[in-house]
Amino acid sequence: MQRTPRQIQKAFKTRPYDAAEFLTDPETIAAYLTEALESDDPRSIAKALGAVARARGGMARLARETGVTRESLYRALSETGNPELGTALKVMHALGVRLTASLTA
Length: 105
What we know:
By secondary structure, the protein is mainly alpha-helical. It starts with a helix and ends in a 10-residue tail after the last helix. It has helices spanning 5-11, 26-38, 42-55, 59-66, 70-76, 85-95. Helix 3 (42-55) runs parallel beside helix 6 (85-95). The radius of gyration is 17 Å and the shape is globular. The chain has one domain.
């Protein structure tokens, strides 16, 4: 008897992918954020900052360090978020991330 896709789905327990689980060292975090910044997509950048925040102690800790409410951070750093520059800079500072500028050729 052949299984339907629904039966197969029920047979395997899966969970959503969370990049934060793999951001375990500074080099990986830096590479991940660099890729997000190079995308020029504000939503990708916000989502990447959220993943780093979760990997580095969570939103509650980040809220204490930035003075931004936890709820505001969840909204701003979600896949649909669009944080203000000031919020993004506070988050990066609290996470120990420093931006540098370079000119393209």
